[in-house]
Amino acid sequence: MSRWQKKSLIHISAALLSCSCMTVAIAQTYPAKPVRVLVGFAAGGGTDTAARMVAQKLSESFGQPVVVENRAGSGGIIATDLVAKAPPDGYTLLMMAAADSIQPAMRIKMPYELPKDFSPISLVVTGAFVLVIHPSVPAKNVKELIAIARSRPGQLNYATSGIGSSAHLAAELMNSLAKVKTIHVPYKGVSQGVVGVASGEADMIFASVTAAQALIDAGRLRPIAVSTAKRSALMPNMPTLNESGVPGYDRTGWYGMMGPADLSRDVLMKLNSGIVKAVNTPEMKAAFFKQGLEAETNSPEQFTQMIRREVEQNISLARNAGIKPE
User: Fold this and answer.
1) Per DSSP, what are the bridge partners of residue 208?
2) Which stretch of 20-29, 110-119, 156-165 has the lowest confidence by average pLDDT?
3) Cα dihedral 203→205→211→212 (10° resolution)
4) Closest Cα partner for 196 from 217, 211, 178?
């Protein structure tokens, strides 16, 4: 080996050692300043509330302020795009909602690609939808509802909170798997849709448990199944669609934390560890449960795969429902 080659090898080794030391130092000192968590929806909503609860716990754990910023607009795209373009240093994060995974099915052009342009950190919570019907619909369970839908194709209808909403795609998944045809009736919000079913304007809706509970208790809505693959702790005695004649059915609402692509592994895992620890404390589980949510965390790899599956399923459901992206 020549003298020049030896010197080059020494320089390269020194550079690699320096980079390694810098990575360790960053992981040990992170976070050294306040962390921002962007929310793509208005203050007071579910995404915002979940973000603030997690941010408070992370602030206590990290010893640095973790501040939530609302950047509402374009169905969450504004905030999501800001995070996609932020430096991958762990100081700009996103509280992602399941609704964000629907956007690629609704728009021809997106300023980012899910999950490619992000570093998914962890799922935070999930929330089951409950399928409720108006008491006048002569079905006591999902099998009977499907039988009615097959005998009267195109006559039963379902309310939603709008075209491309979670409720819309949840109903279309049932249509697809059960091979039935029910008609979409969009409302301006989930509350209006729930009231529409309770008043008899529509036959059924997939709604959050919290949105439907009061009218269920009053006997104005009949719950027949939850949307999750396994029974939900929110309604433990309620069967799933998966076990009630629609095998393979699984839809949930959820929130999770993401950062920009290329977060260092050390920072990514420190954030994952902090979130997992915070979310799974008894007090946080209880607080989420009161809001109709169940604490559920996972690894960055599992969350990445989950987002990928959701995006692919949403695109397929939107196409089958005849929704044309704009």
Assistant:
1) 129
2) 20-29
3) 50
4) 211
Length of the chain: 326
Give the pLDDT of residue 326.
86
d(CA 119, CA 97): 15
pLDDT above 80 for 26? no
pLDDT number for residue 23 = 45
Mean predicted lDDT score pLDDT of the chain? 92
pLDDT tens-digit map of 202-249 = 999 999 999 999 999 999 999 999 999 999 999 999 999 999 999 999
State the DSSP H helix or E strand holding residue 225, giving kind and residue range, or none if neither.
strand 222-226
Instruction: Of 268, 265, 273, give the one whose Cα is nearest residue 57.
Output: 273
Whether CATH 3.40.50.360 fits 33-127+252-320: no
Task: Identify the bridge partners of residue 255 per DSSP, sorted by sequence position.
Answer: 97, 125
Q: How far apart are CA 324 and CA 326, in angstroms?
A: 6
Residue 129 banded pLDDT, cuts 50, 70, 90? very high
- The SS3 call for residue 286 is helix
DSSP state at residue 324: P
- The first and second tokens of residue 2, run together, are 């020549």
- What pLDDT does 7 receive? 54
Containing 128, the helix (H) or strand (E) segment is: strand 118-133
266 to 22, 31, 90, 92: CA distances (angstroms): 11, 12, 10, 16
Q: Report the C-alpha gap between 60 and 295 in whole angstroms.
A: 19
Q: Identify residue 222 by its one-letter amino acid code.
A: R
Task: Please report the DSSP string for 192-220 in residue order.
Answer: HHHHHHHTTSSSEEEEEHHHHHHHHHTTS
Q: Kindly report the backbone phi and psi dihedral angles of residue 247, in degrees, each rounded to the nearest multiple of 5, phi listed first.
A: -60, 140
Write down the residue that tokens 């959701």 correspond to: 310
